[in-house]
Write a structure and sequence with these properties.
Chain lengths: 219, 219
């Protein structure tokens, strides 16, 4: 299995997985449905699996994302990202510093960093992050230990502070996705809007439509 | 800070850390005492820290082990091992397969694998492990979810099954260390015998003496 080349990174609709939210079918079925509905990027986030099981899951998910020519990003574990041939790794503020991950991975991997302040955004940009996850934009039930929400105004400030792609996450749904795009985000990331949906394909379609509509108006 | 070259790997007395056992002074003070008492190898084992804190701890410990010209091995996380310039990584049966870690790290890192059966030992040897951790040799209070103890007989069988260095772990103390060495182990690994000791330097001295005496008789 060779890594399929992802020519252009499309951050529009970025799914972050959470197997605990999967109520409607298997975890992988939901991701497959979401991909068929228009998800452009998938991040595998596993906080409780050992490395062996995490790697097996990552390989399995990579076969799926490869079929859709969509990049797979691994949360936190650079070694798992390298081991499964993922397109990238996503680092939180409590994970390995971006500059060190860049030194190890070189340009082989897309590196994303979660930020919630201008200072963190500038630091991650200086450390050669490829994109920033702005987290949280709104308050969210998925994560409870997160900083104060950035909000639309905060997102606009962040947009002016850095030139690299911004993916907004936290409390985003089809109703507010357009506001996020108009504020300057390159994409939106969702967890529960898709993972906990009883119709993940439809959820993805609706989110993607809202994003594309907002992008077409912004252009 | 460049990685200091470790010319010869001496597995004789291999300390596996557990910060929760440190009762007598700080975690690093105990490791320093143990190193001054004759520990020849240190494995940093962290099961609850995030990657950022794990990496900071690894870097700090590496400065210490470098001062003693002793290799630092990182438990489980190959990425942390690469990031801190450790000498190696130690993999459990539930961690990343050795062959994949070898593909990523090449010959830059010592790779150790925990095994408890002949089958696992042969598999890890085939996957180019540099040494095997035989675990547990005796029953131990440190880990509760471990396989049936290998015992002295089992250790002797394992010694005949593979040519690579064997480090025995589990319930080893100064009283039984010599038996382990006579059964063919290249070294013994300890957690609580040193980490929970009120006199870690003395504990290391006694263990090391028992090992050296047994080795000198075996030669």
């Amino acid at each position: 299995m060779t890594a399929r080349r992802i020519n252009r990174v499309d951050y529009s609709l970025y799914l972050v997985t959470d197997r605990n939210l999967a109520r409607c079918g298997s975890f992988e079925d939901i991701v497959a449905e979401a991909l068929s509905g228009g998800v452009t990027m998938v991040q595998l986030r596993e906080k409780s699996l050992g490395a062996g099981a995490f790697l097996r899951e990552a390989r399995s998910l990579k076969e799926l994302t490869d079929r859709f020519c969509v990049p797979l990003i691994i949360n936190d574990r650079l070694d798992i990202a390298l081991a499964c041939g993922a397109s990238g790794v996503h680092l939180g503020q409590d994970d390995m510093p971006c500059a060190i991950a860049r030194r190890i991975a070189g340009r082989k991997l897309i590196i994303g960093v979660s930020v919630s302040t201008i200072e963190e955004a500038l630091e991650a940009t200086a450390q050669e992050a490829d994109y920033l996850g702005i987290s949280p934009v709104f308050s969210t039930p998925t994560k409870t230990d997160t900083p104060v929400p950035v909000g639309i105004q905060g997102l606009m400030h962040l947009r002016r502070a850095t030139h690299i792609p911004l993916v907004a996450i936290g409390g985003i749904n089809a109703a507010n996705a357009a506001d996020i795009v108009r504020a300057g985000a390159d994409g939106i990331a969702v967890v529960s809007s898709i993972m906990a949906s009883s119709a993940p394909r439809l959820a993805a379609v609706e989110l993607r439509s809202a994003i594309e509509e907002a992008k077409s108006i912004s252009r």
